[in-house]
Design brief:
Blueprint lengths: L4 H11 L10 E7 L5 H15 L6 H19 L12 E7 L3 E8 L9 H9 L2 H8 L2 E6 L7 E8 L5
Antiparallel strand pairs: 1-2, 2-3, 3-5, 4-5
Helix pairs in contact: 2-3, 3-5
Length: 163
Protein backbone atom coordinates (compact mmCIF):
# COMPACT_ATOMS: atom_id res chain seq x y z
CA UNK A 1 0.00 0.00 0.00
CA UNK A 2 1.56 3.30 -1.08
CA UNK A 3 1.60 6.31 1.16
CA UNK A 4 -0.53 9.17 -0.08
CA UNK A 5 -0.09 12.86 0.56
CA UNK A 6 -2.68 13.11 3.29
CA UNK A 7 -1.11 10.46 5.54
CA UNK A 8 2.17 12.28 5.07
CA UNK A 9 0.69 15.50 6.41
CA UNK A 10 -0.36 14.09 9.78
CA UNK A 11 3.07 13.76 11.39
CA UNK A 12 4.46 16.71 9.46
CA UNK A 13 2.10 19.07 11.24
CA UNK A 14 3.75 18.25 14.57
CA UNK A 15 6.83 20.16 13.60
CA UNK A 16 5.28 22.90 11.50
CA UNK A 17 3.49 26.06 12.57
CA UNK A 18 -0.19 25.31 13.24
CA UNK A 19 -1.86 24.99 9.88
CA UNK A 20 -5.24 23.81 8.85
CA UNK A 21 -4.77 20.66 6.76
CA UNK A 22 -7.88 21.59 4.80
CA UNK A 23 -6.04 24.69 3.62
CA UNK A 24 -3.47 22.70 1.64
CA UNK A 25 -4.35 23.90 -1.79
CA UNK A 26 -2.01 21.61 -3.70
CA UNK A 27 0.37 18.79 -3.09
CA UNK A 28 2.51 16.62 -5.31
CA UNK A 29 4.92 13.80 -4.64
CA UNK A 30 7.32 11.63 -6.56
CA UNK A 31 9.26 8.48 -5.75
CA UNK A 32 12.99 8.74 -6.36
CA UNK A 33 15.15 5.77 -7.32
CA UNK A 34 18.02 5.11 -4.90
CA UNK A 35 20.65 6.43 -7.30
CA UNK A 36 22.42 9.76 -7.32
CA UNK A 37 20.79 10.74 -10.63
CA UNK A 38 17.62 11.04 -8.56
CA UNK A 39 18.74 14.55 -7.54
CA UNK A 40 18.32 15.66 -11.15
CA UNK A 41 14.89 14.03 -11.27
CA UNK A 42 13.91 15.76 -8.03
CA UNK A 43 14.93 19.15 -9.44
CA UNK A 44 12.97 18.52 -12.62
CA UNK A 45 9.90 17.49 -10.62
CA UNK A 46 10.27 20.59 -8.41
CA UNK A 47 10.56 22.87 -11.45
CA UNK A 48 7.46 21.49 -13.17
CA UNK A 49 5.43 21.49 -9.93
CA UNK A 50 6.36 25.06 -8.97
CA UNK A 51 5.77 26.26 -12.51
CA UNK A 52 2.31 24.66 -12.44
CA UNK A 53 1.60 26.45 -9.16
CA UNK A 54 2.75 29.81 -10.53
CA UNK A 55 5.79 29.84 -8.23
CA UNK A 56 8.55 29.49 -10.82
CA UNK A 57 10.39 32.50 -9.37
CA UNK A 58 11.02 30.51 -6.17
CA UNK A 59 12.63 27.63 -8.05
CA UNK A 60 16.29 28.49 -7.36
CA UNK A 61 16.00 28.54 -3.56
CA UNK A 62 13.61 25.60 -3.35
CA UNK A 63 15.62 23.45 -5.79
CA UNK A 64 18.79 24.09 -3.84
CA UNK A 65 17.16 22.87 -0.62
CA UNK A 66 15.47 19.92 -2.38
CA UNK A 67 18.85 18.90 -3.83
CA UNK A 68 20.47 18.89 -0.39
CA UNK A 69 17.62 16.99 1.28
CA UNK A 70 17.51 14.40 -1.52
CA UNK A 71 21.31 13.98 -1.51
CA UNK A 72 21.22 13.38 2.23
CA UNK A 73 18.32 10.93 1.93
CA UNK A 74 20.08 8.99 -0.83
CA UNK A 75 23.07 8.41 1.43
CA UNK A 76 20.76 6.27 3.56
CA UNK A 77 18.91 4.64 0.70
CA UNK A 78 21.98 3.53 -1.25
CA UNK A 79 23.64 0.84 0.91
CA UNK A 80 23.47 -2.53 -0.82
CA UNK A 81 22.24 -4.24 2.33
CA UNK A 82 19.25 -1.93 2.68
CA UNK A 83 16.06 -4.00 2.47
CA UNK A 84 14.38 -3.52 -0.89
CA UNK A 85 10.66 -3.07 -0.65
CA UNK A 86 8.07 -2.23 -3.31
CA UNK A 87 7.84 1.27 -1.98
CA UNK A 88 10.62 3.60 -3.07
CA UNK A 89 12.88 4.33 -0.11
CA UNK A 90 13.14 8.03 -0.97
CA UNK A 91 10.10 10.17 -1.68
CA UNK A 92 9.87 13.89 -2.28
CA UNK A 93 6.65 15.69 -1.32
CA UNK A 94 5.84 19.28 -2.19
CA UNK A 95 2.89 20.85 -0.41
CA UNK A 96 1.52 24.29 -0.88
CA UNK A 97 -0.67 26.48 1.28
CA UNK A 98 -1.68 30.05 0.48
CA UNK A 99 1.29 31.56 2.25
CA UNK A 100 3.77 28.71 2.52
CA UNK A 101 5.39 25.90 0.63
CA UNK A 102 6.81 22.79 2.28
CA UNK A 103 9.16 20.30 0.72
CA UNK A 104 9.55 17.03 2.60
CA UNK A 105 11.88 14.15 1.80
CA UNK A 106 11.45 10.70 3.25
CA UNK A 107 14.39 8.33 3.71
CA UNK A 108 14.86 4.87 5.25
CA UNK A 109 17.10 5.93 8.17
CA UNK A 110 15.71 6.81 11.58
CA UNK A 111 18.89 8.62 12.56
CA UNK A 112 18.42 12.29 13.33
CA UNK A 113 19.76 14.53 10.55
CA UNK A 114 21.40 16.65 13.24
CA UNK A 115 22.99 13.92 15.40
CA UNK A 116 26.46 12.99 14.30
CA UNK A 117 25.59 13.16 10.67
CA UNK A 118 25.83 16.87 10.10
CA UNK A 119 29.60 17.03 10.33
CA UNK A 120 29.97 14.18 7.80
CA UNK A 121 27.34 15.58 5.55
CA UNK A 122 28.62 19.14 5.73
CA UNK A 123 32.17 17.96 5.05
CA UNK A 124 31.02 15.81 2.19
CA UNK A 125 28.81 18.29 0.40
CA UNK A 126 30.63 21.36 1.66
CA UNK A 127 27.38 22.97 2.75
CA UNK A 128 24.88 20.37 3.88
CA UNK A 129 22.14 21.30 6.27
CA UNK A 130 23.71 24.69 6.88
CA UNK A 131 22.56 25.56 3.40
CA UNK A 132 19.03 24.28 4.04
CA UNK A 133 18.98 26.44 7.16
CA UNK A 134 20.12 29.49 5.18
CA UNK A 135 17.64 29.23 2.31
CA UNK A 136 14.50 27.86 3.97
CA UNK A 137 12.39 29.75 6.51
CA UNK A 138 12.40 26.73 8.80
CA UNK A 139 13.17 23.02 8.75
CA UNK A 140 12.82 19.99 10.94
CA UNK A 141 12.39 16.24 10.90
CA UNK A 142 10.44 13.44 12.55
CA UNK A 143 10.51 9.64 12.48
CA UNK A 144 7.83 7.91 10.43
CA UNK A 145 4.99 6.43 12.41
CA UNK A 146 3.63 2.91 12.44
CA UNK A 147 5.20 0.19 10.34
CA UNK A 148 7.09 2.59 8.09
CA UNK A 149 10.77 2.78 8.85
CA UNK A 150 12.72 5.93 8.38
CA UNK A 151 12.18 9.62 8.77
CA UNK A 152 10.96 12.72 6.99
CA UNK A 153 13.05 15.89 6.79
CA UNK A 154 11.07 18.98 5.81
CA UNK A 155 11.80 22.58 4.90
CA UNK A 156 9.35 25.47 4.91
CA UNK A 157 9.31 28.48 2.58
CA UNK A 158 7.10 31.50 3.17
CA UNK A 159 5.22 32.70 0.10
CA UNK A 160 4.08 36.23 -0.45
CA UNK A 161 0.37 36.11 -1.14
CA UNK A 162 -0.35 37.76 -4.46
CA UNK A 163 -3.74 39.27 -3.67
Amino acid sequence: MGMNGSTMLEPLRQGLPPIDPAAVSSSASCALPPRFEAVRGARHFTRSTLTGWGLAERFDDVALVVSELVTNALRHALPADAPRSDDAPVRLHLMRWTSRLVCAVRDPSQQSPSAGEVSDFAAESGRGLFLVDSFADGWGWHPLAGTLRGKVVWALFRLHATD
